[in-house]
Amino acid sequence: MTIKDIAKLCNTSVATVSRVINDDPKVADATRQKVLDVIKEQKFVPNITGRNLRTQKSKKILVLLPTMDNQFYTRILQGIDDKAGEVGYDVLVAITNQDEAQESKYLDMLRMKTVDGCISFFNTLSHEKISNLAKDYPFVQCCEPTLNANVSSVVVNNRQAIYETCVEFIQAGHKRIAMISGNYYKYSEQLRENGYKEALKENGIEVDEDLIIKNFYRYKDGSDAAKKFMKLKNPPTAIICVSDSIALGAISELKNLGKVVGKDVKVIGFDNTAITEYYYPTISSIAQPRYDLGREAFKLLLEKLEDNTSSYKQIILPHRIVHRESTKPSL
Can you give the pTM of this predicted structure? Predict the structure, then answer.
C-alpha cells in the first residue's frame, strides 16, 4: 500500500494525500477527514522516512486543553513541561474549545505521528473512542478522565474532598449547606456531588434539591446561584463551590446583598487558584496539587511511550482544605 493507492481510494491526488499526512492546514476539513478515514481503514503507515517510521520519535508531545480561560491549568502545564524537559521532550499545547471537530483535528497529530503522545485535560469523544485511541497510541488524561474509558489518568479524590469539607461544616453546626456544581465536567462533578450527598445523609441531614444548583464555571454562574439561594425561605449558611471562579461570583453577590461572608455565610471554592489569596475576603478552597498533577501525568505518558501495551493506571493525588477569611473566624 502506497500514497498513490490511498489517493486512488480517496479519488483525490497524491499531492492532497501528502498534504494531509503533513498536516497542511490548507486542506479542506471534509477532504482531510476522508483521507484520514481511508488511511485508518487500510492501516496505512506513511513512508516518510523509510520503513523505520514506526520507531521514529518526534520527541514532542501534545497537551489538549478545553480552554485557556481557566488559570487552574497554568501550574499543571509547568509540571508537565518540567518533567518532559528532563527526558528531552518538547510540549505543544492546543486549545479545543470543547469542540469535537477541533479535538479530532488535533488528535490527528497523534495518529499521523507528528507527536509521540498526548495528555488531555478534557475530551468530548465517547468512552469507546477514547479507549480505542489509548489502545493504539500513547494517550493519558489529567484531572477529567472520560467515564468508563480504558485510559491511564491522574486525579484527586474528588468525592472525598467534598465529603470532608461538608462534614467540617456539619461539625461546626451548619444544617443548611448548599452546593454550586457544574454541568459539563461529568467525572469530577459526579464524584463531588456524591461526596456532598453522602456527607449529609451520613449525618442525618436530608438532601434538599433546592440547595443544589448545576450550571457552568463562570463568575456569573456563582453570582446567580447565590442570589437564588438567598431568596429561599430558609437560605443556606454555608456554600460549597466546585471551582474558585464560582466561589468568587457567589461571594461578590453575597456582599452585594449585605451579607458578611465568613460570618453570615461561609463559602469555599475548589482548586486553590491564585485569585483566592488576593480577593476580599480571601477565599477558602480545596487545593489540588497542580504541579504534581502535571508531573505525574507526564510520567504516565512516558510509560506508554516506552510500552503502549502496559496496563492502564489511575493515580490519585492528595487534596488539601485551605481555610481563609470566607470560612473564618470559625467554620
Answer: 0.82
Q: Residue 169: CB partners within 8 Å, gap ≥ 6?
A: 177, 238, 240, 266, 331
Confidence at residue 66, expressed as pLDDT on a 0 to 100 scale: 92
CATH classification (class only), 1-56: mainly alpha
User: Domain segments of the chain: what residues?
Assistant: 1-56, 58-155+290-319, 158-287
Q: Rounded to whole angstroms, what are the CA distances from 86 to 79, 89, 164, 242? A: 11, 8, 36, 33
The residues, ordered by sequence, that sit 6+ positions from 105 with a Cβ below 8 Å of its Cβ are 29, 32
Q: Is the pLDDT of residue 27 over 90?
A: no
Phi, psi for 12 (deg, rounded to 5):
-140, 180
- Give residues with Cβ within 8 angstroms of 64, minimum separation 6: 94, 96, 103, 106, 107, 118, 119, 120, 121, 122, 123
- Count the residues in the chain: 331
User: Grid cell 512516558 — which residue?
Assistant: 302
Which band of pLDDT confidence, cut at 50, 70 and 90, is reported for residue 320?
A: very high
Query: Which architecture characterizes domain 158-287 according to CATH?
Result: 3-Layer(aba) Sandwich (3.40)
Per-chain mean pLDDT for the chain: 92
Q: What is the pLDDT of residues 195-249, one digit of tens each?
A: 999 999 999 999 999 999 999 888 999 999 999 999 999 999 999 999 999 999 9
Angle 15-19-21 (CA atoms, 0-180°, nearest 5)?
115
Give the three-state DSSP class for 266. Answer: strand
Is 40 buried (19+), middle (13-18) or exposed (0-12) by CB count in 10 A? exposed
